[in-house]
Hints:
single chain, 5-stranded mixed β-sheet
Amino acid sequence: MGSKALKGRDNWQGSSGANAGAAEKSFLDVMKSNFVGTEFCVRAKPKEFRQIYSKMRLSDDVLKQIYNPDETWIHGVIPDFAIDNTKNGKKLYVEVKRQDGWVEGKQRKDGRGNAHERSCKFFTPGLLASLRSEGKLGVDVLPFWVVFQGDIARDPKRVREITHWYEGVGDHFFLWSDSTNPSPLLDHFETKLKKLLL
């Protein structure tokens, strides 16, 4: 796409970022209210993985082939949230992904975007190992939960993709299509994920 075409295109990043922030806030508010008086707490932007890439040790052969700046830099992953059991130290990491979608009154192209694809980084072997080690949930447990909000939770294409990707581990994603109703979200956590933290 040329610069002229790019200049004429709608800038969606501004509204997309604001919508994502609102989605994260609604999740945080619901979970905080639910955890009052319990051993559980929810933390926004947990920092335990913020340097896992910059501190990654590489072989001498690889180091000879890449740029190695003298400066110190930070490169890692910061999940949206961590749900902690304050009594036993177990942690479940949470990503909230909000995206527009193809629903009633909208066109199929309104479902474009890759928020759901970016959630798949948590399935990678290295990141899984880091999350499992820090979360203390065991090597046979997925240490993350992805909550999809907005139209993506009802988009016929994206829901099928997500369901296929999470086949066999469906407890680890939730389609929160109506964020004004916290009951389905809380029920999902209470019946499918809370037991992992006990």
